[in-house]
Design goal:
heterodimer, A: 423 residues, alpha/beta, Urease, subunit C, domain 1, TIM Barrel, 2 domains, globular, B: 316 residues, Rossmann fold, five-stranded parallel sheet, four-stranded parallel sheet, 11 helices, 9 strands, pyrimidine biosynthesis (chain A), zinc (chain A), Metal_Hydrolase (chain A)
């Protein structure tokens, strides 16, 4: 299949390329930029005038809810949502039912995803059996089955001895450990940021120190074990400062933030809006602003959607009892564009945080727009506006704090390995 | 959202969910209306037909005797049909969701729901969900709000102290877990009380509580100085299990209201308690039963205040 993409604004965040030109794809790869290769016959031409052509988005946290939680979402629904959002690669965390803690489950997931032939799925394996924080999983086996890293997701290990051993063991084989810094005892079943809003609403609160103390432990254990760590969904100003200092010391550390936390604060909870029940909790305005600064200065490498489709019933409960999480695959692009506009960041810089940087963290070759690169592409209209609604969202989860909001940026075509999977 | 959670589009009370953001004019209207009902409660068994033909559902997902009973009495004095549902042992344990329960009861032509739930925001959730002709009264949700308790407290203060603008009020005890304290603070603020104090150990104060407009004290000797109104809070025994406090004995020693500590307040200060009391834990019997205590009148005013709230809602 030879595809000729005409007149698009080509943005390659990795190299900084940003120019309007033609792109030629063949055998699943980018074969030329600008000039038509000899003997290239268009099987398909895409007119991309006024549109942006960039690497497909790479999402570091997208729950697909399989196996076991199909009442919330299925692979079919969520991978369709992914490509509709321009996401071509995604890491799925192991908090399924059962958790991704044995090779058979991972192989099954990979197999199902391959058959659907939509976005590329990179499973993150459980660091401990059943995510219980006690016994290690067979990481090598899981790696061979397709796991790209190991994580506890939202079930932090309480016993630091176990965490140290897990990091040591992962480091033995060069596996990356993905951790969301949160001390389980300090979090104490809280559901909102400890501050004025939680105080007014009478909600059990999670103090910032639940993040910073866990972070300090992780940083010490990195030095002790030599493990390389990716920090998931940091939420606070103080946490960002710790990451900045650790990176200056040269620790092998990367970090992401959820797109929700880039835009929202605990004030958005309003009168107990369960769509704002997220983990980690939405924090204060000062925290959100510090996260944005951290994103701009490179302390935070990537933005993830933290996609978590939740069924209507599980959200129609009092705030603390409502299931946490928000759907996000289809919002990652427009909300990143919104963030870029608000912070006067150039498009290549903003897109780097959802393409090139997360691809490097995942250790995959996509995320660039260069000759010879795999043709995973997102072609979007930056000026197309749409209103987030139940009907617009393809994800089975309609739960998002952004319902009803008008956003700019709509994916027109998504290509994976040179094949049009959306558009 | 954007829609006000408890006022209708004319700015009238549609539900009573919290005292926060409740306009002073509505607050005073409730107190004035309650005043007009005190005669009724004292005249005994004389019914008023304001809620005749209306069905009031007492929806208590958490055990309560006093609050549920006063709501029931108030509704009956207004001639309403009262249906008591003890949800703690009902459909919820059979797996029915909160909103399913509400839908089923709405289908039985409920006009008003009185809701008590252990989760903050439960009454808001129900109020957002029900048909517009149904009114919801929050009878206590988690740690968040207990507006009718706060209103009856305001009624009591007005009875004994008249002018809110000249008062120093202290709220003493477990502020962190108290829906009563939160609702009191907002009501007192709206009614113009210039100085509200909270007195508690740091473990029983929520973060940034000063942002609610209160002065924070950790010491009863300083905190009770020149106070006109003392509002005691109930201490739950589980606070000892969760490392908030070492023992009830030590708590009583430093924060229990004894005659000696009461003597630090103004000589005409009144002592209040939302009940049920733990004698010897947060309050000494001598104070609870003493001349400055207005704890029993509080209970009585509770009926008039709840009649006022129900009749105002039914009229809107």
């Amino acid at each position: 299949m030879h595809i000729h993409i005409r007149n698009g604004r080509l943005i390659d965040p990795g190299s900084g390329m940003d120019r309007t030109d033609d792109l030629y794809l063949a055998e699943g790869k980018i074969v030329s930029i600008g000039s038509r290769p000899d003997g290239f016959h268009d099987d398909r031409e895409i007119e991309a005038g006024g549109m942006i052509v960039c690497p497909g988005l790479v999402d570091l946290s997208a729950r697909l809810r399989e196996p076991g939680l199909e009442y919330m979402a299925t692979l079919e629904s969520e991978l369709e949502a992914a490509v509709a959002g321009g996401v071509t690669s995604l890491a799925c965390p192991p908090d399924t039912d059962p958790p991704l803690d044995e090779p058979g489950l991972v192989e099954m997931l990979k197999h199902r995803a391959r058959n659907l032939d939509q976005a590329r799925v990179y499973p993150v394996g459980a660091l401990t059996q059943g995510l219980k924080g006690a016994r290690l999983t067979e990481m090598v086996e899981l790696h061979d089955a397709g796991c790209v890293a190991f994580s506890q997701v939202d079930a932090p290990i309480a016993n630091l001895h176990v965490l140290m051993r897990a990091m040591q063991y992962a480091a033995t084989f060069g596996f990356k450990v993905w951790l969301r810094p949160q001390d389980i005892h300090l979090a104490n079943h809280g559901v909102a940021h400890e501050g004025e809003i939680a105080t007014r609403l009478g909600l059990p609160a999670i103090p910032v120190c639940a993040e910073t103390i866990a972070l300090a432990s992780i940083l010490s254990l990195m030095k002790e074990t030599g493990a390389s760590v990716h920090l998931c969904r940091i939420s606070s100003a103080e946490g960002t400062a710790l990451v900045r200092a650790a990176k200056r010391q040269g620790l092998p550390l990367t970090c992401d933030v959820s797109i929700n936390h880039v835009h929202l604060t605990d004030m958005d909870i309003g009168f107990f809006d369960a769509n704002c029940h997220l983990m980690p909790p939405l924090r204060s305005l000062a925290d959100r602003d510090a996260l944005c600064v951290g994103l701009m200065d490179g302390t935070i490498d990537a933005i993830c959607s933290d996609h978590a489709p939740v069924d209507e019933d599980a959200k129609s409960l009092p705030f603390a009892q409502a299931e946490s999480g928000a759907t996000g695959l289809e919002l990652l692009l427009p909300l990143t564009l919104k963030w870029a506009v608000e912070n006067r960041l150039s498009l290549p810089e903003a897109l780097a945080r959802i393409t090139f940087h997360p691809a490097r963290i995942l250790g995959i070759e996509t995320g660039q727009l260069a000759i010879g690169a795999v043709a995973d592409l997102c072609i979007f209209d930056p000026d197309a506006n749409w209103v987030v609604s139940h009907t617009e969202l393809r994800s089975q989860g309609k739960n998002t704090p952004f319902l009803g909001m008008e956003l700019y940026g709509r994916t027109r075509f998504t290509l994976i390995g040179g094949r049009i999977v959306y558009g | 959202m954007g829609v006000h959670p408890q006022l209708n589009k004319n700015g009238e009370l549609q539900h009573l969910l919290t005292t926060e953001g409740l306009p002073a004019v509505i607050l005073r209207h409730i107190l004035d209306t309650a005043e007009s009902f005190t005669g009724v409660t004292e005249r005994d068994v004389k019914k008023i037909p304001l809620l005749r033909g209306k069905s009031v559902f007492n929806l208590f997902f958490e055990p309560s005797t006093r609050t549920r009973t006063t709501f029931e009495i108030a509704a009956k004095r207004l001639s309403a049909d009262v249906i008591n549902l003890n949800m703690a042992v009902s459909s919820q344990t059979k797996g029915e969701t909160l909103l399913d329960t509400v839908d089923n009861l709405s289908a039985m032509h409920a006009d008003m729901f009185i809701v008590r739930h252990n989760q903050s925001g439960a009454a808001h959730l129900i109020a957002r969900h029900v048909r517009p002709e149904i009114h919801v009264i929050n009878a206590g949700d988690g740690w968040h709000a207990h507006p009718t308790q706060a209103l009856l407290d305001m009624f009591t203060i007005r009875r004994y102290k008249q002018d809110f603008h000249a008062l120093r009020v202290a709220i003493i005890g477990d502020i962190l877990h108290s829906r009563v304290a939160r609702s009191q603070i907002h009501a007192l603020t709206t009614l113009g009380v210039p100085e509200i104090r909270v007195i508690a150990p740091k473990t029983l104060l929520p973060a940034k509580v000063e942002r609610l407009g209160v002065h924070v004290y950790h010491n009863m000797v300083q905190g009770l100085q020149d106070v006109d109104v003392l509002m005691m809070l109930r201490l739950q025994h589980e606070r000892m299990e969760s490392a908030h406090l070492p023992s009830t004995e030590e708590y009583f020693k430093y924060y229990g209201l004894t005659p000696e500590k009461l003597a630090l307040a103004r000589s005409d200060a009144i002592v209040m308690h939302p009940g049920p009391m733990n004698r010897g834990v947060e309050i000494d019997s001598e104070v609870a039963d003493g001349t400055q205590s207005v704890i029993l009148p509080q209970v009585n005013f509770g009926i008039a205040v709840r009649m006022a709230v129900m009749s105002i809602l039914a009229g809107n």
